[in-house]
Hints:
Layout (H helix, E strand, L loop, with lengths): L7 H28 L1 H4 L9 H14 L6 H25 L14 E3 L2 E3 L4 E5 L6 H13 L4 E3 L17 H13 L3 E5 L6 H7 L2 E4 L7 H7 L6 E4 L6 H13 L5 E5 L17 H8 L4 E4 H5 L5 H10 L4 E5 L17 H17 L5
Parallel strand pairs: 3-4, 3-10, 4-5, 5-6, 6-7, 7-8, 8-9, 9-10
Antiparallel strand pairs: 1-2
Helix pairs in contact: 1-4, 3-4, 5-6, 8-9, 12-13
Amino acid sequence: xxxxxxSLPELRRDIDTCNLELLSLVIKRAKLAISALQFKDKVxxxxxxxxxxxxxxxxLVKANQxxxxxxxxxSIFRGIFQHILDLMSQERKTTLKVHRKQxxxxxxxxxxxxxxxxxxxxxxxxxxxxxxxxxxxxxxxLRQHGVIFLRGGAFKPRSSxxxxxxxxxxxxxxxxxxxxxxxxxxVTEVMDPRSVEMVAIYADVLQVGTRNMYNYPxxxxxxxxxxxxxxxxxxxxxxxxxxFAAEYIVAGGNYQxxxxxxxxxTFTKETRYxxxxxxxxxxxxxxxxxxxxxxxxxxxxxxxxxxxxxxxxAVGAKGVMLEVHPCPPVARSDADQQLTPEEFVKLKDNxxxxxxxxxxxx
Length: 362
């Protein structure tokens, strides 16, 4: 039965009051949901609980006494719930441990007396470690030309199960010995949570490849170690998903995360992937972690690497990753994207000349 009022202005005043009361309740509801995040984070990675939403809607329908239909009540509250879920998702993003807070400095990690996150660096070496002689031939030239970070894969995730999968622990020993021989920092990929402890014995920096960015058990294990982790962006991952992957590592207690852009899958066929160069300044704005670029995997070819390296440094990358092999045509993996040591030296010299030539004069 309609309420009785003596005048329209009086009725409108009550409507206005009701609007404010509804607003206050919706705001209170949103704040309660945000408060629930601290409890949800302990048990789940998802802000949305479909069973809980269905329970709430069923309770509201049961309490409905009109004039709205049950379907209308469901529609109204689903809209409210969705907006609150969006708010919770945004809140979680801004409270990530890897997220840059106002005034946070760029992070710099020291590894065996060498720094990453300060001056731009090169991380170079063969895609896969094939022998000690092969790695030594590359490392010797790299070190002579100022490269400190030596990369090499001991475990190789390959699309075909019959392709060369790497030398395993024997390759790790080779990497450790060669890196120590030339005073270099070793970087290698870890693929299995069960291998983290072993790889950490031999390597200075543990790398997570693009296919394992979503390997949450692996990321959790890497959160337990006291060594830097070089995390590559999944080739179909958004930046939000990339940062959530980094959060798994940081949430475990390991704050030494290096973010690596390595290209994403698009429609282009001219390159292996498409280098998302805009991700570098965006990631630097979003987080204080060092950001590097793997130009070799992005391009999948060697003839355009030099401008990609220049672009990476121009937008603020703290390093680039390049694959270097003594004889690329006979490489057991990724032959088309690996430079010879001589080609790498020429590229590095050209980049140095370009950067020095474009520095502002006093």
